[in-house]
Amino acid sequence: MPDFSPTRRALLAGGATLLAAPALAQDFPARPIRLVIPFPAGGPTDVYARFYSERMSRELGQPVVTENRGGAGGAIGSLEVARARPDGHTLLFGTASTHALYNLVTRQPQYDAARDFQAVAQLGGGPLCWLAHPSQPATLPEFLAAARRASPPLAYGSPGTGTLMHLATEIVKREGGEVPLNHIPYRGAAPAMNDLIAGTLALAVNTLGAGLPLHQGGRARMLAVASNARAPQAPDVPTAAEALGRPGFTAVLWHAVFAPPGLPAPVLARLSQASNAALADAAFRASLAAAGIEAAAPGTPTEAAAYIATETERYRPIVEAIRPELDA
């Protein structure tokens, strides 16, 4: 039976791409670019992707058109891009979930996140935050202490088993002294937030941008934000590193742009240049900051790939520790 894996497709396409590389580089982009978002509209990934597509359209002189292709935790849209022609006109707005966690948590993955994609740029993203119902203690250490005493265990909600939010909270449980919080997985962050506000959950995890309106409106209390420094929008909220007494602890739902493997080097360089111009723009960074998104510094595709590899290894121990829950 023929091998039609993303890697095999890339190898077959590679020969033709090499022959066409000078023309592709000279003409690129020759038409609108399709930016696949592998999650439904309205979430934090969708928000950043639309900021990015608008700015990249200006940089490249062609429309960068977003297309939501959600499903299977991001695998459907990701696989579609992995199989696309590697000419730079089809890109993926990937995340920590699709490219650091997917191969760790999925028993039968449909793609290899490192082998079946070309990293273009690491863009930064939304730091995670933990939100408690207003009836709960006011600080993260006090909340964890109360959770250790609670019977039955207090419940926390995440957007799903194996998501970055789930894994980061499991790390917090262990850093806080093996706190017996009961994980309730939801199909997305919004339902978990609704149950937190209603008091069904004691704690929920989300991105800073999504959590700020709840905190500022008094519907939930933000206990910690997993960024390097306190968020300017909520200077009263400690970082997770401060709250846990664990220097260096961060957790970011980061985003990165990927192309199919075999992308001609001049096209990759052009996309990288355009991304760096966006990331260096003060107005672009300010727009993201207002939405609770921390833009990355400009960098190279090689640096982006190295960052993703480091993030993958950072979460490997917690995935192995909770393997039974992931396989249930």
Walk me through the structure.
The structure is a single chain. The longest helix is centred in the first third of the chain and has 22 residues, at 6-27. Helices cover 47% and strands 18% of the residues. By secondary structure, the protein is α/β, with parallel strands linked by helices. Strands 1, 2, 3, 4, 5, 6, 7, 8, 9 and 10 form a ten-stranded mixed sheet that branches. Helix 2 packs across helix 10.
TL;DR of this structure?
Helix content is 47%, strand content 18%.
User: Low-confidence spans: pLDDT under 50, at least 5 residues?
Assistant: 9-21
- Give the overall form: globular
- Beta content comes to 15-25%
- Report how far the terminal alpha carbons are from each other: 33 Å
Average pLDDT taken over every residue? 91
Helical element count? Answer: 13
Name the structural class. alpha/beta
Radius of gyration: 20 Å
Q: Classify the oligomer.
A: single chain
DSSP E strands, number: 10
Query: Helical proportion?
Result: 40-55%
Largest sheet: 10 strands, mixed
Supply the key terms:
328 residues; 18% strand; alpha/beta
Give the SSE map.
Elements: H1 6-27, E1 33-37, H2 44-60, E2 64-68, H3 75-82, E3 90-95, H4 96-105, E4 118-132, H5 140-149, E5 155-158, H6 164-175, E6 182-185, H7 189-198, E7 203-207, H8 208-216, E8 221-225, H9 240-244, E9 252-259, H10 265-279, H11 282-290, E10 294-295, H12 301-321, H13 323-327
Helix pairs in contact: 1-10, 2-10, 4-12
